[in-house]
Amino acid sequence: MALIKSVRGFTPEIGEDCYLAENATIVGDVVMGKGCSVWFNAVVRGDVNAIRIGNHVNIQDGSVLHTLYEKSVVEIGNYVSIGHNVTVHGAKINDYALIGMGAVLLDYAEVGEGAIVAAGALVLSNTKIPPFTLWAGVPAKYVKDVEPEKTHEMNRKIAHNYAMYSSWFKEEDNKEASIAEDGK
Length: 184
Prior knowledge:
- By secondary structure, the chain is α/β, with parallel strands linked by helices.
- The chain has one helix at residues 148-182; strands at 3-5, 13-14, 19-20, 25-32, 37-38, 43-53, 58-59, 64-66, 74-76, 81-82, 87-89, 92-93, 98-99, 104-105, 110-111, 116-117, 122-123, 128-129, 133-136, 141-145.
- Strands 1, 2, 4, 6, 8, 9, 11, 12, 14, 15, 17 and 18 form a twelve-stranded parallel beta sheet that branches. Strands 3-5-7-10-13-16-19-20 form an eight-stranded mixed beta sheet.
- The longest helix is centred in the C-terminal third of the chain and has 35 residues, at 148-182.
């Protein structure tokens, strides 16, 4: 079971039908919507300020979400995919955005609806990424516009895929629980 820890009087609130990997960590002032998944070794650390996560968000393996003490917050919309080993530090990510593997988003950055941040990109503090654009590089720069329909389709597909993947683990967890119960 994931480590879910209260701190400073805040207990994480996890929505319905979420999957939390056994070694995921969710701490403090975190509110997560329904149908989300937090994968292996991911850390959602709301100890120093708020983290708000919408519905059907997947936070993939090794990612870290954190904030500045009493300053920045993390806000994530619906149907957002956060790739493996991403760092989101006090940034806002709007609906249907995709954050590629190993990207870093710093405080007060904002990723617009349906935007794509390429793998390995560094989004500097206060950067505003417009909706339906692709940004890449270190530091991240505008590459091109992306078609809203294609972005929504792609990001919805990824979100649904992660819901499917998480169902596999939920099934296995239920099997293991039944086996353990039968063995008593």
